[in-house]
Structures are given as structure tokens and as C-alpha cells.
Task: inverse folding
């Protein structure tokens, strides 16, 4: 028995010998939130189907409402006051998309669309959902290619998760709650891998869970990785809080799952197919005065593989920065820089579909 335990410890050490993150430079940053409170939380990208270099970054200011920026980080729009926590976009070729946010003002899922003429967010009230949850928290959304409509997943601070399917068209949506389950503890980070059929959920003090995406599946959940230490195996590459989770979909079932390790200011990377831990990276931004702004204590993260112009030829990675010197903001990194530093190579061509 002692021998087995010792062997487990040695295997854990062999598999986790170095979690030190490599450093990746950022390209730009958004403007800061309006207050010095904990306000910036999560971000998503709406891909312009005509000119991806004109895509929009939509991010949450928990004290004032949703904010829309361009790829340089310049603010284009601030929406009416609300209390959005997380935000995501359900988009696909031929479907310009809906933007969803979890709003603590009334514990609802609020819905918006991008007006193609003004490139502003406008409310889509028929797609707004009253969840009945005690305090809405994490959220993710995607366009279900098999069903042909958007799906949104929302969690509460107590760990209850709900899934809603939407049917209809602009101005005339209806929804159907298809699933409710309980993670266990507080869960905020969500990511969907539609091609492989999985939902990833971050339980902040425990680790990352893999659930079957299909509501009717009876397949049990799987623990992908846990907060360290794990004396019995190769897991334990995470630290509390397990916050943001995102998928970089390189196409043809290739890509990477990225998880924010909040207390160590790093982002853990896993192979999409095998879920093998590949290492971590940290973000920095060089300022004009010669100082370096480290991205710290990150909450929400987002990645897209869609090429977004010359600044982001292989897509973008966005991370909330808790300590921006004063008020919080979001940092923007080119995926090319992350892939080069970490030697991440997809064996299939990158997918330029705006749903990825």
C-alpha cells in the first residue's frame, strides 16, 4: 500500500514537474471600467461576417452594463445600466448571431443582436429569459448546427446550471429549458465543444468538469483536472479560483482548451482531443513609458480561431486584467504569439467559420 502511494506521488511529480508559465506579449487593451471596484469580468467576440477586421469585442462591466469595443480596444458603445456578469455570442455562417449576458439586476439572460447598419448592440427582448435562479453567474452560448438555432447555458452562484434552446427569428423568439443540473460548488467558467459533444464547467475550488453536451445523455461527468495537489495521479495542474474557460477551435476536431488559474496569474492549456495538460502561459503588455503591465488575477477569458485581420491572423485571446494600475480592463493577445511561444500546432487548417 505504501509502495503504491509513493509511486503515485512520483508519477504526479513526473507529470507536473513544471507549471511555470511562459510569457506572451499582448497586442492591445480595452479602455478601463468606469469605477475602481471589481467590475470587469468577461468578454466575447462578435465576428463581422463581411470584414473580420471590423469584429467587435463585447465585455461586461458589472457596475454599469455591457461595453462594445473594436479590436484596438477603443470603446464604441456603452449600453444602458444593468449588472451583467458573463457574456457570449451564438454565431454561425448565415446567422449573424445573438449576444447573451447573465444579468444580476433581475437574474435573467438578456439578449441582443448587432445592428448591421450601425454595428451597435440592440436589445432582442423576445430572446430574453427569466431564469428563476437565485443569482445568475457564468454563461456560454453557441449556435447548435444540428438543431439550427442558438443555445444558451447559464449557471448560478450556488452551482445550479440550466440550458435553454431558442427557436424563431429576429423579433420573434421563444425558448425551451432542456436541462438543469447541479455542479456541486460555485461554478462560473463554461465552454462548449460542439464537434466533440462536450460542455466544460469550472468549479472554482475543485477543478474542471467535462459533461456530455446532449441534455438527454446519461454519460457521467468526468474530472478533467483538479486544483493541486493530487497525490494519486497526474492531475493537479490548476489552482483556485478556476475561473474563465474557453476553447480555441482550430477546425477538424483540433485545438486547445484554456483555463484561467486566477491565484497564479496564468492560463493552463490542454489538448482538445486528449485533454493532456500542455503547460501554461502568462500575459504582459509593454506600455509606451517602458513599464510592463502584467495580466493578473484573471476572471473571464475568450478565444476565437477566426482570422481577424493583420493584427490577429490566427485569431485572438482576451483576458480580464484585475490589476490594471487602477480600474480593471481586458487585454488582447494574438493567438499566433501564444501558439509560437508554446509550440502549439494544429494538424488541420484553421477554420474561418465565425461560429468558432
Result:
Amino acid at each position: 500500500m505504501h509502495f503504491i502511494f509513493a509511486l503515485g506521488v512520483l508519477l504526479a511529480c513526473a507529470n507536473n514537474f513544471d507549471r511555470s508559465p511562459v510569457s506572451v506579449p499582448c497586442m492591445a487593451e480595452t479602455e478601463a471600467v468606469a469605477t475602481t471596484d471589481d467590475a470587469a469580468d468577461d468578454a466575447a467576440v462578435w465576428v463581422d461576417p463581411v470584414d473580420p477586421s471590423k469584429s467587435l469585442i463585447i465585455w461586461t462591466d458589472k457596475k454599469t452594463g455591457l461595453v462594445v469595443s473594436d479590436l484596438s480596444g477603443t470603446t464604441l458603445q456603452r449600453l444602458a445600466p444593468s449588472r451583467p456578469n458573463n457574456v457570449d455570442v451564438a454565431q454561425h455562417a448565415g446567422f449573424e448571431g445573438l449576444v447573451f449576458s447573465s444579468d444580476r439586476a433581475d437574474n435573467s439572460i438578456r439578449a441582443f443582436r448587432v445592428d448591421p447598419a450601425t454595428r451597435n448592440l440592440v436589445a432582442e427582448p423576445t430572446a430574453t429569459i427569466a431564469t428563476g435562479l437565485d443569482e445568475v453567474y457564468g454563461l456560454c452560448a453557441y449556435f447548435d448546427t444540428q438543431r439550427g438555432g442558438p443555445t444558451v447555458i447559464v449557471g448560478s452562484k450556488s452551482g445550479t446550471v440550466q440550458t435553454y434552446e431558442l427557436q424563431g427569428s429576429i423579433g420573434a423568439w421563444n425558448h425551451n429549458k432542456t436541462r438543469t443540473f447541479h455542479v456541486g460548488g460555485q461554478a462560473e467558467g463554461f465552454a462548449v465543444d460542439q464537434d466533440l459533444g462536450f460542455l466544460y464547467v469550472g468549479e472554482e475550488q475543485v477543478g474542471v468538469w467535462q459533461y456530455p453536451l446532449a441534455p438527454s445523455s446519461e454519460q457521467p461527468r468526468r474530472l478533467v483536472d483538479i486544483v493541486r495537489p493530487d497525490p494519486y495521479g497526474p492531475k493537479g495542474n490548476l489552482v483556485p479560483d478556476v475561473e474563465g474557460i474557453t476553447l480555441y477551435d482550430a477546425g477538424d476536431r483540433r485545438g486547445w482548451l484554456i483555463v484561467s488559474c486566477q491565484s497564479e496569474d496564468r492560463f493552463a492549456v490542454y489538448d482538445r482531443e486528449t485533454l493532456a495538460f500542455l503547460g501554461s502561459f502568462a500575459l504582459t503588455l509593454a506600455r509606451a513609458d517602458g513599464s510592463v503591465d502584467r495580466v493578473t488575477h484573471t476572471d473571464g477569458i475568450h478565444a476565437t480561431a477566426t482570422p481577424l485581420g493583420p493584427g490577429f491572423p490566427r485569431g485572438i485571446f482576451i483576458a480580464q486584467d484585475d490589476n490594471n494600475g487602477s480600474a480593471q480592463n481586458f487585454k488582447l493577445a494574438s493567438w499566433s504569439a501564444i501558439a509560437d511561444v508554446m509550440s502549439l500546432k494544429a494538424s488541420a487548417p484553421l477554420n474561418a467559420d465565425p461560429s468558432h
Observations:
- The mean pLDDT is 90.
- DSSP finds two helices and 27 strands in the chain.
